[in-house]
């Protein structure tokens, strides 16, 4: 069974900075790197920003993920953050239940705030999400009853003792497959 792994923008930075190409590391495994429309926007913004201070390794990792990962999001027709027939996924009952509890986070002009993080946290109820973001409350709140949010600090500890990225995902992502 294929398992989708979404990597938050800050997670890509940490992996690349530590010499890990997630596409290559997960080739011929049960894992598939995926990105949401909002993550793609974040990745492309980092690649195209003249002020971005990203290393060549991070640039390569972002380009590789966009080129070889799969674009997935919750099914819908309203554009980002949703995806249509080829890229959309039905939301599970757990995701629908969690959606009902989310605060309506809007900025002063009525635009959604923290949308990428909220969607990634909800995707983690059924998939694996790798992030280095510990500041946002959404990462502590979801998934509280199943799913897999893998924090960089935990992943780094396993990688530092010689465990491969693939095997670390297998170990840390067990909750979402039980």
In brief:
The chain has 178 residues and is α/β, with parallel strands linked by helices.
Structural account:
The protein has helices at residues 9-17, 22-25, 37-48, 56-68, 93-101, 115-123, 137-141, 152-160, 165-172, and strands spanning 3-7, 31-35, 70-71, 73-74, 88-89, 128-131, 148-151. The chain is of the alpha/beta class. Helix 7 links the parallel strand 6 and strand 7 (148-151). It has nine helices and seven strands; from the N terminus they run βααβααβββααβαβαα. The strands form two sheets. Strands 3-2-1-6-7 form a five-stranded parallel beta sheet, sandwiched between helices. The chain has a two-stranded parallel ribbon with strand order 4-5. Helix 1 (9-17) crosses helix 4 (56-68) and helix 3 packs antiparallel against helix 4 (56-68).
Topology:
Elements: E1 3-7, H1 9-17, H2 22-25, E2 31-35, H3 37-48, H4 56-68, E3 70-71, E4 73-74, E5 88-89, H5 93-101, H6 115-123, E6 128-131, H7 137-141, E7 148-151, H8 152-160, H9 165-172
Parallel strand pairs: 1-2, 1-6, 2-3, 4-5, 6-7
Helix pairs in contact: 1-4, 3-4
Report the sheet with the most strands, covering strand number, pairing sense and barrel closure.
5 strands, parallel
Strand percentage, roughly?
5-15%
Count all strands and give the number. 7
Number of helices: 9
Helix/strand order, N-terminal first? EHHEHHEEEHHEHEHH
The neighbouring-strand order within the major sheet is 3-2-1-6-7
Radius of gyration: 16 Å
Overall geometry comes to globular
